[in-house]
Amino acid sequence: MRYLLDTHVFLWATGQSHKLPANIRTVIDDEANGVFVSAIVFWEIAIKTRLGKLDIGGRSALELLGLAQTMGFQLVGVEPDEAATFDQLEENTHLDLFDRMLIWQAISRKLTLISSDSKFWHFTPDGLKLLWK
Length: 133
What we know:
The protein has 133 residues and is an alpha/beta fold. The protein has six helices and five strands. The mean pLDDT is 96.
């Protein structure tokens, strides 16, 4: 299976794995699974730490990027076609741009998004596959 990590799931996986349900830890740790982390995650972390809205324990987004590589996560950027077709998401009640792009990447790349965000379920009619509990 192929999974994309939401920002909070990535952060928990890299330092607070006790916050992850056992089934999610199993999925992330299973080497048979492809576990992806988007550049959007690092962009969100960098912006929110700079603004003082996120505390990542003195680490930087760049350090977390290296940690993601060490942990064997596959890193993905944003492709021009993803950016150009981003407007195809029909759900209009959840407007967080970081979330919307992660959701769109999951849909367009046929990845299952791992997130505890209950608002993401609104995107399942758009084709989003979600995993949490």
